[in-house]
């Protein structure tokens, strides 16, 4: 049974986010952030400086985070008021949007096929925590945090959430001419670390 549906004339971008009280947040190609009530009616609309790109995310304080096609990140409160906008010095597209940690730090990946990708970490007040070149070019992967929040994963690479430093990991497939470099580190539903390589999953 379809309870309701929402259509946007210009189209919707990225994946939605839903708050604990059932408010649905959507990015519109009309350079807007939309908040819908649980019954599908519009609660509020907020303007964006550029068209949204990538998944939306909610902070621990209820803030809504939106990345855009220019590589920027905008934060809104639950009433639709803009809290801040961050413009990075690096170039790239935040194709997979943003993720947030329990300590309030916000992470997103700028993917650039020419210059390489940059992982950006911001504090809740929009100040830069750190940014680092990942060594990848269009990693084309969503970011993942370790269960303890001390590591963040980009494809087959692990970085310290405290400093942004690349952490050494001896992957069993690293020397394989076919599988090396194609691994994906991820966290399972059991909160354990896994690696997907080829058709195999390793713990």
Oligomer: single chain
What is the averaged pLDDT score?
90
Roughly what fraction of the amino acids lie in strands?
A: 35-45%
SS element count, helices = 0
Structural class: mainly beta
Radius of gyration: 18 Å
User: How many individual β-strands?
Assistant: 19
Distance between the termini: 40 Å
Q: Give the helices and strands as they follow along the chain.
A: EEEEEEEEEEEEEEEEEEE
Shape: globular
Helix content: under 10%
Spatial strand arrangement across the major sheet:
1-2-3-4
Report the uncertain regions: none
Descriptive key words:
203 residues; mainly beta; four-stranded antiparallel β-sheet; 40% strand
Task: Explain the overall architecture.
- This protein is mainly β.
- The chain has strands spanning 12-18, 24-28, 32-36, 42-47, 57-58, 64-67, 73-76, 82-86, 98-100, 106-110, 118-122, 128-133, 144-145, 151-154, 157-160, 166-167, 184-187, 193-197, 200-202.
- The strands form five sheets. Strands 1-2-3-4 form a four-stranded antiparallel sheet, with no helix packed on it. A four-stranded antiparallel sheet has the order 5-6-7-8, with no helix packed on it. It has a four-stranded antiparallel sheet with strand order 9-10-11-12, with no helix packed on it.
- It is globular and about 55 Å long.
- The termini are far apart.
- The mean pLDDT is 90.
